[in-house]
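Quick look at the format.
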Amino acid sequence: MNKTAKLDRQQKRNLGKTVLRFIVSFGLMGIILYLFRAQLPTVFQYLKEVQPFYFAMAVVLFFIGLLAIAYRLRFVIQVHNTKLSVAAAYYVNLISLFFNNVLPSSVGGEMMKAYYLYKDSKGSVSVFSAVVVDRLFGLITMLLISISTIFFFDSAQGSHKIMGSIVMLAATTATLAIFIFNKKIVDLLCQLHIPLLPAIFIEKIKEIYRAMYEYREHKGIFGRCIILTLVGQITYIVVNYLLARSLAIDIPLAFFFFFVPILLLMGVAPSVNGIGVREATFLFYLTEFTTPEKALALSLLTTFFMILVGLISGVIYAFKGGLSSEEKNVSPG
């Protein structure tokens, strides 16, 4: 009876989260479209004039950049004494891209990535920690890239929005580092049995710490993962710059080193794959450098771009299904 009641409560919570995502996404989108109802013809005119060369370059570069992320996943998995071919690592990232578009959550794709790695590693639980660490590498590097723009993006110092965001990011990064890498803090949190923090939060901190702790013994792999993450993130930043160029929006590349990490970070907000939140973020930051109409056009083009790469990944997934016998080199070492 207790198990049934717990299951019912969990289902209600999941339903509530899904409803909240739809309300946030389509509520924000509805407000934005209403406020821009008079400018929508101009926005759509900009979208009709997209330069195919820049857009095609962005698509090709995106899939090339995914190679760096695939190699990173391969090294992350290697720490857990599990072998993973580059082809398999690339393919599970394609699967993740597809399910990010299908499931109403930015972590839906990561869940499917973990599922396929778990299934094809014959039940190796360590792959779940590997997926957590893989995502964590992206998060920390992304935050550091955005913070670093204060040193080479001159316009940042004159913008209250950008400077305020950088200060918040720096505080977030420092807090994250303390929670993840400081064993004393983790031990203290684990000893708290009073309702200061939810139990699930403490469990997540312990899980992340245990996962990251293993990498202290593999400094070479840790360094390679950082470099590969930088390559992958910088590639995605250039992709967003090319999308802006496809709309003839003249914004310095340095701005996107600040903005793209912010955009990715906002993807964890409760929404349906960032819809609504993404458009609001574009309007908040880009209007200092271009017109609101062009900022909205670029946000819609970026949404279309993410759907397109997800569909391309989905087509590949539809034809291939699970990992092929040639790729299925996911096994305990």
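Next, a different chain entirely:
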Amino acid sequence: MKSYLPYSLCLGLCLAILLPHRLTGWGFFAHTLIHHQAVYSLPPEMLVLYKPYQEFLTDHAIDADRRKFVYPAEAPRHYFDADLYDAHQWPCSWTEAQQRWPKNILDKNGILPWNTMQVYYQLVNAFRACDGQQILKLSADLGHYIADACVPLHASSNYDGQLTGQKGTHALWETYIPERLSPQFKLWVGKATFLPQPDATLWQLIRESAQAADTVLRVRRLLDAQFPRKLKRTYYLKNHKWIRGYSTAYLEAYEQAMHHMVERRMRLSISMVANFWYTAWVNAGQPDLHKCLNVHFNQADSLEWQRLQHIEWKERSEIISPFKE
């Protein structure tokens, strides 16, 4: 018997293909690593729930990215083009943003900070309700958006270097370097700390990312002018297959020239994901998470995750081209 995707999912996929495709934040590998490491920073009272479900949080760290392949409304939640918004008009609340900019501008320039805070408040409410299922799902999504806020190119309209003849910089920075160099990174960031003003902290992350975006592109331009072209690409082993891509020497040279920015921003991501989880729990009254351990995901959740994964890989196989320079 043939199985068919629901009409809404098919429609969403068609729209996602027709609309301009915005790249992901941290690559899939980096997002999962960030969530995995963030769990270790939580206090024992939270580890009661988070440690047994560490694998779930790791596996579902990329659910938000998967939804972009199905639901067009998801994409703007992952970026904030700071250079396209009047710097004197933000930070601001979501209500104020809707009054200042029409929906088409918000969708075009991104709503990452506002969406992230909405998910944060939803997580606070899930803690108060001691809803283990929602706590885990919202923690996975909140961690993803927080990590995206730490990526410089997610705060710039020149998100892939496409405006300056440097296309491919996004994947180079947030996928290739973490995948290949993360074994060299020191990713223990210490214990989670409480954030008195999580919204102000988030806007500061956005501001810092926007300021760093120019460095990401400028340093690559300087490196490409000096680095021997014949040493820039090579074959390397990945998942038991030889793949042609950037050489380790080039990746290391780029990361060093940026003063280890990728490692620094990854460490910041891990720290902030843990801090936001911890702050949501504290602001919910520090509920006893032993009472939230009876977690049961229903069949609808399982089917949704399977559909997202299936559509994601089908879509990615069509849009990802072989390595080119």
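DSSP finds 14 helices and two strands in the chain.

See the schema section for token definitions.
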